[in-house]
Amino acid sequence: MTEAEQTRPRGRTLTEIYRGWGRYQQLLVEALTPLSEGQLELRIAPHLRNIRQLAAHIAAARAGWFGGVMEIKPELLLPYTSWNIEAPDGPVTVLIEGLETTWRIIDEQLGQWTLADLETTFSGVWRDRPYSYVCQEIIWHLIEHDLHHGGELFLILGSHGLPTPEL
Fold first, then answer.
1. If you write DSSP's letter for every residue of 11-61 in order, what string do you get?
2. Which positions ≥6 away from 130 have C-beta within 8 Å?
3. Secondary structure element (H or E) that encloses residue 130, with its range
4. Residue 142 covered by a domain
5. Is 160 annotated as ligand-binding?
6. CB pairs under 8 A, 24+ apart, for 154-163?
7. pLDDT tens across 79-115, in order?
8. Residue 113 maps to which CATH number?
9. Whole-prediction pTM value?
10. Is pLDDT above 60 for 65?
11. Which residues contact 165 (CB under 8 A, 6 or more apart)?
């Protein structure tokens, strides 16, 4: 064991465990930043989401789970849940602000939580149905959600000859 490992606190935060998620957030923002309003409307097929809708959907899901289900900073997050119904108009900076705000709150929480917190249960009622999720389920769902829809977004960029991030 190295000296650094000996002095490191035993309770690792979830930021250390989920470090790659923050990098993926950076890749999403880097891919979106140079896009024009017209490019945000690009899609693969007429019946699939466009880039604007995908970015908004990612932010909305984060906001719904952390702000709604987990009740973490709902005053900051819950306004973004409407983006699941209708993506905001305007320049790419609006979408980036949503992704960065939702990510900042997630990252703050990951920095406070330890492995033991993964077992925390969040219960409530949604659409007249009771629910109960442990923190680990929510985090895993959001990671796979970000990866899935971010992958769609990157596929649209590449299919239209636009730069995609180097993973």
1. S-BHHHHTHHHHHHHHHHHHHHTT--TTGGG--SSTTS--HHHHHHHHHHH
2. 123, 124
3. strand 129-134
4. yes
5. no
6. 154/31, 155/44, 156/42, 156/43, 156/44, 156/50, 156/51, 156/54, 157/31, 157/42, 157/51, 159/44, 160/39, 160/42, 162/35, 162/39, 162/42, 163/31, 163/34
7. 999 999 999 999 999 999 999 999 999 999 999 999 9
8. 1.20.120.450
9. 0.91
10. yes
11. 27, 30, 31, 154
- Rounded to an integer, the average pLDDT of 124-136 is 94
Is 57 labeled as ligand-binding? Answer: yes
In this model, does residue 7 exceed pLDDT 60?
no
Residue 145 known to bind ligand? yes
Q: Provide the number of structural domains found in the chain.
A: 1
Domain that holds residue 125: 15-159
Name the pLDDT band for 11 (thresholds 50, 70, 90).
Answer: low
133's tokens:
């999720």
**Longest distance between any two alpha carbons in the chain, whole Å:** 57
